[in-house]
Protein 1
Amino acid sequence: MAQTRERPKPVLHPDFCKGCGRCIESCPKHCIEAGTEIDGATGLIPVQLRLDSCNGCSLCLEACPEPYGLDHESPEPRSSEPPHIPGTENLVAIAAKRRVAETIPDVRVPMPALRPLVVKGTYASAIGALLAGCRHFFGYPITPSTDGAELMAKLLPELEGHFVQAVSEVATINHMYGTGGAGLRCMTFTSSPGFSLMLEGLSYMIGAEIPGVVVDVMRAGPGLGNIGPEQGDIKIACRGPGHGTTQTLVYAPATPQEMLDLTMLAFDKAFEYRNPVLVACDGYLGQITGRVDLPSYMVKPGLPDWAVWGDAAHRPNLHTSILLNEADQEAHNVKLLAKYAQMIDREQRADLYETDDADVLIVAANTPARTAKGAVAVLRKQGIKAGLFRPITLWPFPIRALAPVLPRMKAVVVVEASNGQLEDELRLALSHADLHAPPPITNVRHYGGIMPQMNEIVACARAAHEATPSRRTRETEAEAAARVLS
Amino acid sequence: MSVFYERFDRHDHGQGLKAHATHYCPGCGHGLVHKYLGEAIQSLGLQDRTVLVSPVGCTVFMYYYMDVGNTQAAHGRAPAVAVGHKLANPNSIVISYQGDGDLASIGLAEIFHAANMGLPITVIFVNNAIYGMTGGQMAPTTPMGLKTATSPGGRGRYDGSPMRMAELIAQLDAPVYVERVALYDAKQRVKAHKAITKGLKLQEERRGFSFIEVLAECPTHLKLTPAAAEQWVKDKMVPLFPLGVIKDISPEPWPEQPEPCFDAARVADVIGGATGEAQKFARGFAETGFGADVAIKLAGAGGDGAQTTALLLARAAIQEGFDATHIPSYGPESRGGTSYADVHVAASEVLSPAAPHPHVLVAFNAPSLAKFGPTVVPGGVVVYDKTVIAEPPPLPHVKVFAVPFAQIAQELGAIVVKNVVALGALQAATGLLPKESLLQAVRQALEHKPQFLALNEQAFERGVQAVEALKRAEIH
Ligand code: SF4
Ligand code: SF4
Ligand code: SF4
């Protein structure tokens, strides 16, 4: 004997009914009516059910936009019980609390001993990325960074990785938001105009704490500029790429070897800090071929506990950068700032060349630093004790390595292929370190695709050396202060 | 309904009513779409695998409600983020949810690219003909004549006309399923529910990209009651945006994606790393008279092979354990105009890789010789192609070797090897690296083209001989 099981009838939770009335017209049995009484808790007027003729067809449930407005379930009301999440915690904290995944750690896999490669800068960086465990590349062709992307297009399929030519740099950085958000190592190569387009996405990545590596092969600007080398992106890279409280580590390689080494390092740091990392090189370095020694290991990445991966363990995770409550947003900013402070504390890197006895200090990064190294050798032959200070991190500026050598210097010469963007970083770092009386700073600058030349650096350093009285006769900071006060 | 969180803790810390009620206005279509999506995920058993990409707009906070992996994307970028997730974990079920301002305006590039790629993801496009969150502005889907905050006189001639996204997406080859549904009555709701379920099912089966456009009500900005808004969608939107299946093909599933490779030997091979020591031939850094960091410039027309010669030189030097660099001239001039390469070979470290004042110049044509000859340091070496340079400029400050690169190459039957003739000449003229070093580099470069090896070796040898003959002639 067939028995028709009685279908459950709907239950209304008046607190969660918005009185929209969509359920009313949906009921073929006219069981639902517009309400007349304002609900004290919501200020809205919930509908009223008269289920005498209800056949449990569920059509009203299909019509209710509220997850808990109409319900099949138990009749005990879901009340507005007190919150069990303290009000000062933000969403990120809530997500972290729910987290059940365990981090699968990265593994360093030993590599066979290999002969040095002879490759150009962009290739070295791409190979560094592969060795760092990056198997996802997203990019948009832009000279002079494209070589790196092309090599990735060739090699990644051989490692069952993915190369995606994105529809734009805007899409590129958002693909990275996705893959990085899933906890994997991904990267892009771009060049200045493309980098500008990525700023929006970088800000979102920073806000949502999603790692990723952007290699910017800087070219001349502003605007379309040309494809000659420049360092004109230092300002946007170091002053915060994208809107809001943004900051990333910015590495400045000077050789193909460093293109590989620093790209590898960038991946580790991106995941260590859950923040994008920039590798900023100039168009020249991208094209320079040189000797590249290979590391003794490669990385087989694990999977971080925070990944939005798409399995049970990672289900509670969330990536977002919107915190509507101002106090939450401020707290999140404070957290990011603490992270940046940690980077300033731990991540400064610099290379000092012939600075021990120097009294003229050249400051330069990327390819200009190599030219400057040549200039140091020439100056020394001419009897001028020149040295080179080369920031490897443009941000944080490695002021800690600079401060001790500075007092010995008669003059500082900043050499760069930009309108003083590196010098601004230097001056800002001096100011933050309360070093208010540095030696006189002069500079050699080019832009528009022209690099500083060695003879210019030599001439400028000579002139600075000759123009400046020795350090001993310069007024001390205290004297200067006394003079200003009197 | 368990795909919805028990409590909406993320909704304003789950305080009070917000723990169980959405933030949507009464009668808003989004809540319905959420419910159908939630039930589809539930009925297909996909909750653990789901990654939901929330957009910008009224549904920016979709992650308040859905107990799945959640990520929130920038305005218009949700499909790009979705692609990133799907490629990262092909086993995840990725849903990109967008409204009309987000998808059909700022995000056009991203949605078309994702659709054209065709990865198995599911896009839910909620079209309510207006910008909700920013306060009722005109959307690309707003009907002509409708008054909005940014079309106070009604959508007019300067505003374009409503975009039929489902039809546009269906034009592409890759999408497998495109349907437009509505929510205004029970029948439509059943269809909407089914369409969303089908979109997810197709993804589960790895069939491809699906796109479900939902005509939804925004009573608030239409300034209508929910019931009137339903009627408005039916009367005003449906004629503009016809309902129904626009595309439904059932292709073979996407192949299963193999795991990325992290095998060290394979990686070593792929990056071109050679094991074992390279053979060395040099006994120390050569005494060329140019010190421990020798600068060489090779210059000619594009196609002369200056860059290849430069690279061979740099490779050979590095295999000998020295440092070397090569900078090509690049950009427009490398496509046909002048092409020059700066090379440095140094005992331990190349300081400055540019060569504005080279020790050695190899010139393949007259303009290069005229331009760079005078820049060579006094006492330096110049080797040039005598075949094409009949009247060299006077260069009294350097040692000059005039070698007919092109003529020799022609005699060997292949003009393209003139740069290898030049390499041989460079070797003999400077002694910077042993012959065998350079020949080893040539052999490595021809590893996959052994048929050209003999020709290149001959070319190299002839270059060497030509310079040696010149040297002998000078002595006698
Ligand atoms: S279940 Fe069916 S009959 Fe019962 S109230 Fe709902 S719509 Fe009416
Ligand atoms: S559809 Fe839901 S929210 Fe709207 S009136 Fe009915 S029960 Fe209330
Ligand atoms: S503004 Fe419109 S789309 Fe947004 S929640 Fe309200 S009704 Fe829904």
Note: Residues 331-335 of chain B have pLDDT under 50 and may be disordered.
Protein 2
Amino acid sequence: MSGARTPAVVRPPAERDSEITVSTSHALPPAPRVGLRTAWWTAALAVVLLLAALAPASVISDFQFFQLNRVVTFAIAIGGLNLLLGWAGTISAGHGALFGIGAYTTAILVADHGVPWPLAVLASLVVGLVVGALLGLPALRLGGMNLGLITLAIALLLPPLLTRLDWLTGGPFGKTTPRVEAPPGLPFSSPQWLFLVNLVVLAVVFWLLSNMLRGRMGRALDAAASSRVMAAAHAIPTNRITVAVFAVSAAVAALGGALFHLTTRTSTPDSFTFLLSISLIAGAVVGGSRSFVGAIIGAAFVVFVPESLGGFVDPAAAGQWQQVVYAAALLLVIYFFPRGLAGLVRQARNRLVRRSSTNARSQEEQS
Amino acid sequence: MTLLQLTGVRAAYDGVQALHGMDLAVTGGEMVALLGANGAGKTTTLRAISGTVSVEGAVVFDERDVTGWAAHRVARLGVGHVPEGRGTFVDLTVEENLTLGTLARGSRLRGQVKEDLAAVHELFPILRDFSRRQAGALSGGQQQMLAIARAILGRPRLLLVDEPSLGLAPMVTTEILRSLRVLQAEWQLAVLLAEQNARRALAVVDRAYVLESGRVVASGSAAELRENTAVQDAYLGAEQTGRPA
Amino acid sequence: MTELWQQVLSGLGSGFIYASLALAICLVFQGTGAVNFAQGVMATASAYLAWSLVSNGMNFWLALVLVLAASFVLGALIERVFIRPVEGSSPLVMLTVTVALLIGLQAVVALIWGDDPQQLQSPFGGGSVEVFGARLTAQQLGAAAVVLVTLLLAGAFFRFTTLGLRMRAAAQNPASARLLSIDVGRMLALGWGLAATVGAVAGVIFAPTLGVSPAMMDSSLLLALAAATLGGFESRGGAVVGGLVLGVAANLASRYIPGIGSDLQLVVPFAVIFLVLLLRPQGLFGRVSSVRA
Ligand SMILES: Nc1ncnc2c1ncn2[C@@H]1O[C@H](COP(=O)(O)OP(=O)(O)O)[C@@H](O)[C@H]1O
Ligand SMILES: [Mg+2]
């Protein structure tokens, strides 16, 4: 405990005496860098989904598009959360609230001020960035898990605040905005059109984020997450980076929220409770917090798992079973697949590739 | 009678082999040194014995195969370990640190705690004077004394001591090694002492093993090793080369 | 003036809930390095257990004793089953596990006992007492007394018993503790058990005021986390004092600061923490240990 200056007040005992324990460390393992490969995967996925978007309504119904839109907007938010969980080594228990702030910003601008929705979405992004910076600033001094605590406060305070500030937010009934229609002349239904928009945003955001992580920023974050001491030795300003990353992460979450509102059209205080924040964390961990493909897998988990429970459990208790499933999935992934489902997919693919390449080699040898 | 026997002991850190088949034996009541340069594997050998690193091969203590045992179970059998870095409980008082030592003896020699504490206090008076102080506030040498005192208060039959001289002034080191010798004789304690400073270690121990890259490369009585020119060239010069504090 | 005094005292009353949960959180943190988000819901489970026993006709105090024993076992079991596999992991992994425990256990509680709030009769009756001009219910006073005794007992346990000493040693330097034949794993499980027990005291004894529901401890957990932050996670006494201070502060703020009703009371502790941490990152009472190499 030598460091009076170390901001990480919350330090696990394991770290204190690492000179004796031969640690079988169970930290989130460093996954390979986001490479071109991830970008390709994302792109390929986007193309597949794009084709799906063009499918006629008889193949994919408007309701299914509605669900897919929820997946994509959650995926965007989870991608933002991954910056913290997977790279910055910190946690936000309040991304559901940031998501909600994005949703409400768009809702209010569109409903009360007649702002065109694309501008409103951009405004949500900016609001998210600002709120994120404001929340992240204390991290400059606090670091570590205290950020988690502050974000937890936001998560719990947002719903009562939204209810309270009814002159702005519409109180418990929230805000409803008109349906977003495709530009005249394009043969898309509203959910179809939104799906296209969301996909494009998802692709652009993930592409930008992976570029960011591939550069100096990613290296700095890795150094900072692996060891504050080492980062300090390399003169990496960990706290400033943490604030920047938190702001970006918050902006991305707010962006996801804005698009989510366009899909659901109504935002109420109880859409953005603590459980949403938890769901996003669950999605990030289950999908694999160092992978953007993982963000999409995680979002699908968050949307479809509670859905599929519907048939099996008493509808009155569906919420509880959903929580149980989230909890079980979180624990299973943490214990058995610390890289999440995306890691599992990658592992399986590598094994396939290796097998086929050894097959090829042995055939060559035979001939 | 053989108290400790290592046969073909191998140990690795994250897949990197640190011990490549160590063979070593300690008889009850004798004082043996493990000599070797930095990184030779002295610390790892001690850890292999006390069960704080996982090993292959066989570690037999008092005719019991303790390979793979959890550290606290090995300790309960009567193996004391003064670890590298001293392992001080910095936020506890000196007195509490020593109490933890006496608790380590379990039900053995329970009635003798008071006398043993008195004996230890006589040997290291500073620990009595500072008994209410936070252990973290002691100097390096004082913490080293505390670590040794704590370990022997568990009345082990085998005491593993990892480089007590590290970072200490030569005078202090000599004092500590001498105290160790006194205790060893009085309490019929076998001591396995890891030391980089071969000259000083050979002045107090009965026998020694010389390690290099995780293997025993020489062994013999202290007198023999002092005479052995190869060992002299390789290790007894250590004093002049200067060592990291 | 009396009004203020009244508010201070009743704030202190709820402060005891936060103080005991904060102490529990500290115990767990010092042992396993996990910030236990499930500490509150563990206490909720204890409260429900007590409610079940009492509503089946058992005497309150007998039920309390049984529930405390059960909570101890449950806490130790949770450590063995859920925490052990990730022992020594990064704080992030630990946090994820305790968050999973929080949502899982809360759902299980709701599935077993339902969502509707239940009422537990106060064992102290319906009377009230005058304390220097302020009026306190017997329940308020009695609950505070019971928690106070618990906190003192816990303090004495760590300070004066050899088991307490061994637990402190295991928490502080597990590697070194093992060399002194301390079974660190068992100490950690004991720590969780003890924490669950301390939390259960608060959960059960305050249940008549809080009402028994799956969410009964939600805001208390948050205030307890805030209290632990305020006091410094390393300092058990600090966490307790932090809890009491926050209890009073939150109560005064919701009474005297316009616009802060009970729904936004949570703003207060966080504002306080914010300030404290900016000035003293180690917490109000956290020590910067004097360690020499
Ligand atoms: N915790 C560790 N992690 C990885 N390698 C280690 C660790 N401790 C020691 N080693 C390696 O094991 C070998 C033996 O080290 P050690 O037993 O500490 O030697 P000595 O005590 O003789 O200086 C060295 O090569 C060292 O680098
Ligand atoms: Mg060494």
Note: Chain C has twelve helices and two strands.
Protein 3
Amino acid sequence: MAKHETPLLDELEKGPWPSFVTDIKRQAEKNPDCWDILGQVELSYKEKITHWKHGGIVGVFGYGGGIVGRYSDLPKRFPGVEHFHTVRLAQPASKYYSTKHLRDVCDLWEKYGSGMTNMHGSTGDMVMLGCRTEALEPFFYELTHNLQQDLGGSGSNLRTPANCLGQSRCEWACYDTEECCHHLTMHYQDEIHRPAFPYKFKFKFSGCANDCVAAIARSDVAVIGTWRDNIRIDQAAVKEYIAGNIPSNGGAHAGRDWGKFDIQKEVIALCPTDCMWMEGGELKIDDAECTRCMHCLNVMPRALRPGLDQGASICVGAKAPILDGAQFATLIVPFMKVSADNEFEELIEFIEKIWDWWMEDGKNRERVGETMQRVGLPTFIKVMGLEPIPQHVKEPRSNPYVFWQEEEVEGGWDRDVEEFRARHAA
Amino acid sequence: MALSIDELKAAILKKAETAPKPQLYIKDFYTCDPDSKPRVIKNAANDLVKEGKMMFWSSGSTTMYAMKNRIKDEEGAGGVN
Ligand code: HEM
Ligand code: HEM
Ligand code: SF4
Ligand code: SF4
């Protein structure tokens, strides 16, 4: 594989930013196949059309996910990228790796693939970029047998479970995100590796509403930690914050002088539900109004802590733009106990209820959020066997029509027309 | 009455052989037996893959099922390397 002239790509090496062009050139010194990546991309920049092809039979035996097939449509001109499949690797809970493991994975990828990686892809998995079809099985064998590392997800599968650091490092975690994510990942191995659904399905786990894994934006079922009782307030610490003796936000904004801490301006006035106030030198919270948004806790972590009756809110249906525009997940269950003690039974039951419905009613390539939008939230809530509650309502209705269910109407839909006409001549 | 697993597998294979398009979504197999639960049909289809009678075909974002011989024919004609 020879070097190609790449005047357009070379432009992308100018300026102060890191450049993928520089990265690929560096890797090409080691693995000459990579010159053809640059050659093909340069051509695409010139012709303004992609030369990557999608799809086909790629995979490892028994797995329907984890590998995304890519081919060049100019294999004669760019033989180094004739096959250029992407391999996704499962991430461990909270992305805790040993450096040895990362080195081993990279060595293995140098052996079988292009050596190029993407840590991590926005979907969450570790991404290995570019290898030939015949390299897939031996790579997979060594990966699973020597490194005990599984493939990640792709296809119409359960994909890319992910969780925040949770209780391993964070005092705000309202449930054990790592245990929960790991347990469900093991529980649903078949759904992860083999197609099961109309389209992709993801669950992600954050320990609190700060939502460090962006579960609400990236997953079909977002499990977001919260509490049911009251925020724990240490009034003495509140006074220390007001006096400026404890830096706000854990000192995160200490790089610049923002002036004296102002609890009214920085905490109370920013509470989205307006449920905080000062009274007799004490901070008060009307917990019935609090949405557990985490803002006040983030600003004054030593004064305010989550309540002790902890669990999670479950939101359903986030997605990137596919059929319709991007959307966040919708709150379905405001509070659910999420516990390893009963092997996350409630959550599993909830998830499988969604699957049973979506597998029947979802159209091909329709995400759960899109199916929900198509049938409407009232129908989805009924499917889930839930009662509508105020938390499902975003704003007061502007639609004046009321749709009754037959069972809500006395006598149902059947009526005696004769009797009606006797009172009301046509 | 739902079909037995063996009957279900036979119906799935028949569908994969005779459907107009060689690649099928898991959902396309639900019509093989309206009385079987989707997850039962999914398990039967995945069993057939494990047995080597069908294979997965990836569009890049969706995984589908196919009979190997039908894909080979198509890809040969289409010129996929
Ligand atoms: C070519 C003929 C017609 C066209 C194109 C037409 C179009 C429409 C449209 C676009 C609406 C608004 C729908 C909505 O957004 O809610 C509407 C509402 C309505 N039309 Fe027509 N219409 C036609 C004929 C008629 C006739 C002949 C009648 C009565 C004899 C009629 C009675 C109504 C009524 C009562 C509504 C209000 C329905 C509601 O708000 O739920 N329309 N029509
Ligand atoms: C004294 C006679 C009537 C009075 C005072 C009256 C009054 C009204 C009023 C106040 C509305 C609601 C307008 C709004 O705020 O949207 C309305 C709607 C309407 N009226 Fe009448 N009306 C009369 C006769 C009729 C007759 C004779 C007809 C038809 C034969 C009729 C057909 C309708 C229809 C189709 C609507 C729209 C309903 C809807 O969009 O849901 N009205 N009328
Ligand atoms: S989501 Fe909440 S609990 Fe999890 S790491 Fe972030 S702040 Fe901590
Ligand atoms: S958590 Fe959010 S809603 Fe609740 S009191 Fe604090 S700022 Fe207000």
Note: Residues 5-18 of chain B form the longest helix (14 residues).
